[in-house]
Amino acid sequence: MKTAVIGANGRLGAALTREFGRDFEVTSFERSQLDLSQLDRVQSAIAGTNFELLINCAALTNVDYCESHREEAFLVNAEAPRLLAEIANGKSAKFIHISTDYVFDGKQQVPYSEEDKAAPLSVYGESKLEGERRVLKVSSHHLVVRLSWVFGPDKPSFIDQIIQRARENDAVVAVADKFSSPTYAIDVANWLRAAIDKCTNGILHLANSGGCSWQEWAQYTIDVCRSLGIPLKAERVGTISLADMKNFVAKRPVHTVLSTAKFAALTGVQPRHWREAVAEYISAHVSKK
Q1: Rounded distance, CA 67 to CA 65, Å?
Q2: Residue 124 is among the residues annotated as catalytic for this protein
Q3: Which one is predicted more confidently, 246 or 116?
């Protein structure tokens, strides 16, 4: 299957390009090659590419930047995906658009399903939700995939930041009252293959099972590193609250753990726990550094 991946220099895009490339013919576009804010160039580049599957991993993801750049956020996160969906339609190709847990307000204490009402708190969340709507308005056969807290070997993430801090400092802190689902980019590649095989469309949540706070995720990261003999100065992760993050401009949802029950029912695949995925990532990629 000929596949085109947009946003191939990002954490997820790089993983998809590599993993899909094992079996498919993949054409990838990095931001330096294709900037979604330049719709004319998007039109010419993608329309001239031969593919049966188009995956858009690119987005304007700086949540605080989006607050003061609303027009740009909607251009990149909503209008560009609509254009990509139309181009894919013209080629009778499948389009997969990557979205986010930030479309929810985080007030729900149980995992969010695809049917739960979206109510974003930020311009970023609003623009991503509008992108979902525009893509599915073009065709209900396209697929919108919501992810949360993505980590992987191709670009530093929260895990790598925590490890670096723990290497340099005796004390490390992380937010203890914000919860979601860590999601391993390599697992996403495998899950998407399963979803494609089942011709899945509409909206789909993908994440490793279980939920945690940033503090819990950070503490487990340090625990795994120490069990593998990776030298760190810090042993414990202290707690701070979301309210302590004075540098945050946009409002963040507090609880956005995603339910993957729909995916499991469709494919028979149960995503592994986030702790297992984190341990594998650290063992395979961090311990070698």
Answers
A1: 5
A2: yes
A3: 116
